[in-house]
Amino acid sequence: MTDVVESLVIQGQGIGHGCAVAPVFRFTANNSAPRNSDAPPHDENPQTAIARTMDAIECVASDLNQHAHSSDGDLRNILLATVAIARDPALADDISQRITDGQSPTSAVEMSIEHFATMFSAAGGPLSQRVTDLYSVRDRVVSLLDGRAINRASELTIPSVICAEDLSPADTAALNVKLVRAIVTEQGGTTGHTAIIAAQRGIPCVVRAPGSASLADGTLVAVDAYTGSVIVHPTDEQVSALLSKAHNRHVATKSTAPGATQDGHAVALLANIGTSQDATDLSESAAQGVGLFRTEVLFFDSSHAPSRHEQLPHYRFVAEQLGERKVVIRTLDAGADKPLSFAHHDIEENPALGVRGYRLVRTMPELLEEQLAALGTLVQQLPTNQRDRIWVMAPMISTSAEATHFARLARAHGIERVGVMIEVPAAALRAHEIMRDIDFVSIGSNDLAQYTMAADRMHTGLSDLLDAWQPAVLDLIAATCEAGKRQAKPVGVCGESAADPLMALVLTGLGVSSLSMSPDALPLVRWILSRHTIAQCQDLAAAARNCADAESARNAVWSQLDQETRSFLM
Ligand code: PEP
Ligand code: MG
User: Fold this and answer.
1) Contact present, 21 and 220 (Cβ < 8 Å)
2) Which atom of ligand 1 is nearest to the CA of 395?
3) Nearest CA to ligand 1 atom 1
């Protein structure tokens, strides 16, 4: 009798729109938990033991550094931050002290990292996000001290679905991306490192998929990142249904037409970028321009404030790559989840509510001045008929006085199109005043949801609150669009919500005139818009706003879609 293996569906949260069918490659770090701290005393001379441990730490740091320099975008920046953690003198001192006090090198590394991990977790906010990096440094150093390979990455030899508890950026960097068909993790969140890196590389990804880390090597799985489902032991029918859905999505989303509803209401479809490489990738893309250039990403690993002369070539390069298309450049959004060492402040209790984004003008006005000088030069060096394709906006604006001040500074440098981001509820409520002296606004729905719902955007346990579908967030977007309509000033959205096809319909119905997202998400948003009229979008927006919570708002929109659209997205 042959064994019949039942298929089973694991439901997680998907990132991206891709599908994959491949065997599992179970990715485990060699040391996932600290061992007993009462390790027997060792007979190695403490000085020799310290030297051996420091060598292992440096070896790990320089390996990560090499990976960082052969990576780009967010992965590069995250890896550089991990290198900085490994080379932190406070960590070296703590480990050395523990060895001097009689602990073995392995135990000293484990206990010391645990000590820092507890501190980081207690600090909350961005520091708590670094705990995975600390553990990945620990695992690598301990493996080296024990004379073992750093991890299993080199054993990945056939196209596979990587299943793991969680993947640190260092783990991701070590993987041969050409062989990674999809990534599935038990932990992590849709805004975590794994998700960001997978989205950037176009790898289908499902996070928070319970039980996925225990799947055995070689188990066949079918992953649908759009629905967040992982079918374990799929039947032949399930595999062919998934592959044909993937094929249909691919065919239907091949259009490169400018974004518009079925009845021709234009909605510009733009891309979010952070590096020069991202801009190069757009040179052939159907994106109608850049809707958010996160300039702080350029300077994550810079130890000094970049001068106007250092900045200008970056901006010029991006403007050139985009040809005649529009580029919305955001001034440095430093602080909270995007720390820059040269824009560092004394420890703040609540960095997300502290001196971040535009507020840095209070303490370091020269930063904004240098950047506006560089951007003004860029504008002035363009042919006259192209100058208004460079739009410049400030992040984290809270009052109309801030918006007016920013507009005055930017215009003094010859920048023609000046705008601000609406990310703070106060700015949305007073959008009519905020818009008085500026030309456009762009809604940062990530931060707008965070501040409206008082839910830390880095906190994976609060994702139900931290949701742009929350009717309170939709109300603030509606208020902003209303003000934009009255003053005939464009209102865009550049937070993650713009990449959600259902939400794109709602935003369009609310009056948003451009949607900016990761380039990967553009085809599906273009497709769904082209299947709905503006009146339908308005009805969907009204239905969503009528609901009491995020889930019912999403369901209300879903239930009004036609069967063909639904089966395409399911
Ligand atoms: C946002 O807050 O929605 C946004 C686009 O800005 P960032 O994600 O860079 O804070
Ligand atoms: Mg923001």
Assistant:
1) yes
2) 6
3) 444
